[in-house]
Give the backbone structure.
Amino acid sequence: YMTQEYQTSMELALKDQILLAGSIKYAYNQLKIKLTQTTYKSVGRVVSIYNTVLAKSSNEYNPIADTTGDVTGDTTGDTTGDDLIGDDTLVVDADDVSVITDIHSWDYELIPVADDFMRLLPSNHLVMPSNTMEQFIPPIDRRITNINELVARFPETEFYLYYVETDHDIDFIHYENTHQIINYMMDHINTSVKVAVQWVTTFESYTDTFYKTDHHWNENGQMIGYQNIVTLLGEVPDPNVSIKILENALYVGSRAKQIDDYTVVDDFGILFNDTLKYTVEVNGVEAVVNQKPWYNQGFYSTEIGVNHYAVCFGYDKGLIGYNFDQEEKDNLLVFAASFSNPINELIASHFNHTYVVDLRHYEKDMGTVFDMDSFIKEHDIDKVLYTGYYAFYAGEKFLIN
């Protein structure tokens, strides 16, 4: 069982090719979770002691703790947004490097669950193992090269990069966050690119800003992201943006659904600004992009299992255009994935026209390959923003030809 051979064979047999496969698969996943946790109870403390000794004896381990650079700020106070941003500078030069954040002082326990997922206690977050240098360097190198080529091609256009640290960056097993992915990117990115980071340097800066059951940031993380991004872009965060927790809108994210675990649910909240006036085009046609206004008025399902993140914030589209009719302001091009969906219109409110491009869907939705040269010329783009977490920067589908 612990070699995964049994699980792999069983899962191949349950690819919905037999009668009642869904029910059998659910029962199997529940059994797998119980078996994994039972095994952990038998050997878990030995594994925990081994990992602690391994971390302390590793040549890469650095006992220097740095918790002074947490730009995410305090997320426990006023949710209007005034104190969610940290005091430290948000924009960092490409040659700045953060020291290792030693997380031995973080009071947590890891319990293996299923499919590489671990449950982080006491917060109940489902987390994944972090990426090794061997894993992240090749795809990140491709992305850095791609960005640097575009920066050289468009010297009149300002480029910005926002990176969100997640459990891809945090080594919960070995008790450290080396910030190695974003540090590597900053070491190799063109120095004209302005960079800001949503760091994880405390336990709370992770658990307070991400869903327990999903890989996306929650309403606290979204608020920090919105404030950091507009500050990076040279704008001032709008004080009218507020957080609203929606009653009985219980959210079970993709990670929990992957293993059919509905024992933990997330509260669901939105960022909202009632003062915004704008129009939206989706793939070139005027349309409704999300259901946030309806959610804000209390119109949403309270059934467990509803994908509130997609329904409320909108499904991924190749091109979304926001028109705020502010001709004195710049035009912005954003390359992003689903992480930006909850805050797209908030970022766009600081600009004249904003175009959000998801390269995974652009060619299918628009009927043509994305052409950077013609897009910048046609839409008179002043600023280009990349925003996302590791998977966005590592994904080959996000490269621009």
